[in-house]
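Troubleshooting entry. The earlier prediction with zinc ion gave an output that would not parse, so I re-checked the input for stray whitespace and re-submitted. Clean input:
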Amino acid sequence: MELTGEQASAFARANAELAASVASERVAAKREKIERMLGFDREAGEERLNRLLRHAVARVPFYRDGPSAFSDFPLVGKADLRDRFFDFLSRGPDGRMEPGTYFLNQTSGSTGEPVRILATVETGGMANAVILERINRHLGVEDGGITLNVGLLYERTPMFEPVALPSPTVKCNLRGFDPGSPGIVADYAATVGRFPVEKITGSSSRVIALARYCAERGITLRPKAIIATYEHMPDSGRALVEETFGRKVTMLYATSETGYSAWECSRGRLHFQDDLVRPEIVPDDGAGGGGIVLTHLLSTPMPIIRYVTGDRAAAPVPCDCGLPGTAIEQLLGRARTSLVGAGHELYSPFALMAALVAAGLPDYQIVQEAPGLLDLIVPPSWSGADETVRDINARLALSFRPREGFRLRARPSGAFVLTESGKRNPVVQLLDLPSVPERTGYLKS
Ligand SMILES: [Zn+2]
């Protein structure tokens, strides 16, 4: 099968644009720069760290006349970045911002409070490009292949999008599969299975939905890489993806504030890219392990030093897979998406998310406004919400003690809750979280 009609001409256009872009001097120069930073270089990382710290103390009001040793720098949280935004900006000797091409990256936590990060193309963009290209090389992704992307899309993202950096690819951007949406069904029918795919990218739940789509229709895709971001992937979903596409899933760990930071090796551990984003696991009062604290080594316009991500992990472990970088076992949880029980106890959302994916939900969002009660939002075209809620509530009731735990409620005619930047998080937590350890394992997927 091949692309036909509108899709065929859009694809041809994207290929022509990609060729022109790759041939340009600007892209060639950037590619060269990325190429030079591809090797993991601990020594260069040390130099970057020292340069960043010196720069911060000399040029950034928040750190002025501050400490010189890295371990003496204060831990910085989302609230610090939000409330003291201007104090984090780097200034020249005359007190003005230094010349450069800046971009403002506005992100948001699940509580909807915006955090803005100022970066330049030379810094923030470069670290992401280098890390992405390291993954491409590690997994054997070849230049020029097609990327099937079911990740976050913006309003006007075209279906076929030429992307020249870090390595040339035409992205085929699809929304999460939803059998109740005729537009999405038509897009999938016109594209999926009609061309070979070099790489699949997207959020975990959408990659699982794509695998289910292909498995049910006998569509064979054989990508070199499957890169899933953001959410935890339940074991059952991962098995479906890996069986359907004949390839292991690679989880990419990223935060809004520090960009790409680590990826998963063949042994299932996350390896940080220490020479670009320096990790620390700082013990906290949770049950074992500690908080993941990151320093973005190229973040000079707005230094992100010892940033408390809200994610948790056990202490680093040795890994003999051959990849460099600090390695950790999987995340212990993303603290800011915890669920609050009726007795103000705290639960990891992952078991519930796994159960929702297993129930075949095309897309969903969980919103919590009151302890012990979760609102489930699904696309309006999907009719199975009530049944799913009934089934999951029955299973939840079996595992919670009296006056503890939570139950689901299908939010009638609910619209998905977006952050200011238009991002849709799978869990929107509107409550303050009690400082108690997170519980897991309340549902088996
Ligand atoms: Zn490893």
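This one parsed fine. The chain has ten helices and 22 strands.
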